[in-house]
Amino acid sequence: MTYILLAETESRALAYNTQLNGTEYAIPETAFIVADSYRKMKGELLEFIRAGGQPHYACFCGLPTTYKSCHGSQLRENINSITSKLQRLSGNPG
Ligand SMILES: [Zn+2]
Question: Which residues have their alpha-adjacent CB atom under 5 A from ion ligand 1?
Fold first, then answer.
């Protein structure tokens, strides 16, 4: 299910968060950007679904195309590519 894929990608990026001391955390900027964009996409998808969105409806991002051929297209491939780039840039989560 798409929503779970997005949530998993967000938490994989958030795993790069490391605790500096009692109250401060640091996260590599790339990991933060990935986590943030998947968090936003998750919210937009949820709104889309709640509003009765279907794969052949206009995509939530506003581009003049359907969800199926826009954000819904090749989602798993895009996630695999983004998470392996993140791993190349930031190593494994610490
Ligand atoms: Zn889209």
Answer: 59, 61, 70-71
